[in-house]
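Why show two proteins at once? Because comparison is the fastest way to build intuition. When a single record is shown, students tend to memorize it. When two are placed side by side, the eye starts asking what differs. So, the first record is below.
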Amino acid sequence: MYILVVEDDPRVARAVERGLAEEGHRVDRAADGLDGLERAETGVYDLIILDVLLPELDGFTVAKRLRQARVRTPILMLTARDAVADRVRGLDAGADDYLVKPFALAELLARVRAHLRRTEPEGAELLRVGGLTLDLERRRAQRDSRAIDLTAKECELLEYLMRNADHILTKEQIMARVWGYEAEVTSNVVEIYIHYLRDKIDRGFPSPLIRTVRGAGYTLKE
């Protein structure tokens, strides 16, 4: 899963990032509220871990603006404040859970697992769109009766397209979700991998599944 950690304390941020990475998650970090908001607004993350006391914008404001922008990514809020009024304020701003500092890393990781279980679609290991299926465990796709082998990056890209079938994804969203927010990739790399997928998924079939929306991005639809 792809998780954003918005935390200005480097020691806490490093510990959380290390713990999440050890459980197999991809992690981005932001050290202030404004940077965290801009990253979270892309909608590419599966979970946001958000501190309350941040430079630029506080966590309450970040959560509220994300919900106003209709970003539905689950938010786990971190704070040193243990007052009931503060917890209520955070939940009302749009947070889904609340963890008071200092916290045990094991508890944070357990809460992350719980959130991701709730948001993971049923049958997440096998995705289907029309006659196309994707086996995430074996990293293989099949369209009708044709088996398709995929590289790791092709599999990640196809998974993202299939989970967002019928929705237009911009090149920026694809780069952030598949290559990572900090990765030094260009839109040309996205175009190349879309071409690779089309060659494997659509070649030889009467109707393409992967479509270009001029001036907007790409979509996968029946």
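Second record. Ask yourself what differs from the first in the token line.
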Amino acid sequence: MDPATAHKIQMLAVTALPIILAITFHEAAHGYVADRKGDSTARMLGRLTLNPLAHIDPWGTILMPAMLFFFTGFVFGYAKPVPVNFMNLRRPKSDMVWVAAAGPLMNLALAIGFGALLKVLTVVAGPVSGAGFPGGSAAGPEGSFQVLQPISQMLVYGVLINIWLMVFNLLPIPPLDGGRVLVGLLPHPASDRVAAIEPYGFLILLVLLFFDPTHLIQRVLTSISSVLVYLILS
């Protein structure tokens, strides 16, 4: 096996669990808040669960991200969206904001949790070589428990993945969570105009991400994510 492939397999091993946790908790949070706000659709369909199998989309969560990762080094994917009937919410317009924001807020909580576990691991075992940002190493002397390196890398990627997922989903383009938050906050008829974008939202997003010669969206996402990751890991 060539070194590049071996490195990709190693990366996949330390990122798989954080990715699964990130999407599972993200989707369950949407369903839980919707249920509390009056819409029981997710509960009736068995989506109020932390069982990853209920939220994983075989193509969007496993096959497509894996192929992109091995052939391009770039990862893009999605889980099965939790079904929400916004008209069942007690206050559809304002409750939509809380339902949509629940997923990104859960990812922020997970990122902070992964960061806290990394700090505990560092206190207990000392700085672990390779525990810093990908491609680097933690500051300070090399830790004595090298067996903990994969765990520390997994915790770092837990922070990175959850922050990236949070920031990405907060883009104000429906059907992303940020777009639905915007629809809930805007007055009529502006909210109706933004909501009308939803059927074309992913196409617009792909064009912005892959066909923008300035890479503005990618640079904004990366900048915001880097600041948040630094604050959590520092």
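One difference worth noting in the second protein: Residues 135-144 have pLDDT under 50 and may be disordered.
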